[in-house]
Amino acid sequence: GDSVTQMEGPVTLSEEAFLTINCTYTATGYPSLFWYVQYPGEGLQLLLKATKADDKGSNKGFEATYRKETTSFHLEKGSVQVSDSAVYFCALIKDQAGTALIFGKGTTLSVSS
Amino acid sequence: GAVVSQHPSWVICKSGTSVKIECRSLDFQATTMFWYRQFPKQSLMLMATSNEGSKATYEQGVEKDKFLINHASLTLSTLTVTSAHPEDSSFYICSATLSSYEQYFGPGTRLTVT
Question: Which pLDDT score is estimated for A76?
């Protein structure tokens, strides 16, 4: 079945360090890909998305490119801040309205000053 | 942006009792809502898909008689955990769809069964 695999965490970085969180997926067809972020004590928020191959999603300095050839959607940020500390979830949805998201296990990011 | 609320945010109940969790889309109408369960340090696992005016569709392994879902209006879905047991303790999250690929998540409900 369809699935999403994320790198194991936690990821611990110093402020202004470069961030990469790896995400690969397995799916039939042409899924849309998402990164969600969950700050402590809050619900999930959409961070960015890409709906077709080679699309790049970006938001708040984060970027991810939909790579169909490697079935990947790695999240990157050039310079992390303490406020980026959160749990990040990679997810996919099939190209079908009203379909639930399939999530990876989440990666906890901790940024220290 | 679209806002989804959940109530309560945290509940403790005794084993054998039932607990109702509400999920509301505050500023939009959602024909479809989803209920997820999140275990500590694990991903969100889909429990069921709830469509307004029809019976919920449960994922394999989810007991429909234990986790009752009602989607009575375009802005409200409820999850009732019946005869709760300690193993039902978890973080329950709902989401509501605004359009084909847009899902908005509630803040979650922490259920503790003693």
Answer: 98
Q: What is the dihedral of CA A97, B45, A87, B30, to 10 degrees?
A: 40
Q: Tokens representing A104?
A: 């990876």
Rounded mean pLDDT, B48-64:
90
d(CA B46, CA A35): 17
Q: Do A36 and B105 touch (CB under 8 A)?
A: yes
Residue A104 CA, distance from chain mean position: 9
Q: What average pLDDT does range B94-105 have in this prediction?
A: 81
* B70 touches B78 (CB < 8 A): yes
**A interface test, pick of B101, B102, B105, B109 with most A CB neighbours within 10 Å:** B101
8 Å CB contact of A51 and B101: yes
Q: What pLDDT, on the 0 to 100 scale, is given for residue B110?
A: 94
Segments in A44-112 forming alpha helices (H): none
* pLDDT above 90 (res B16): yes
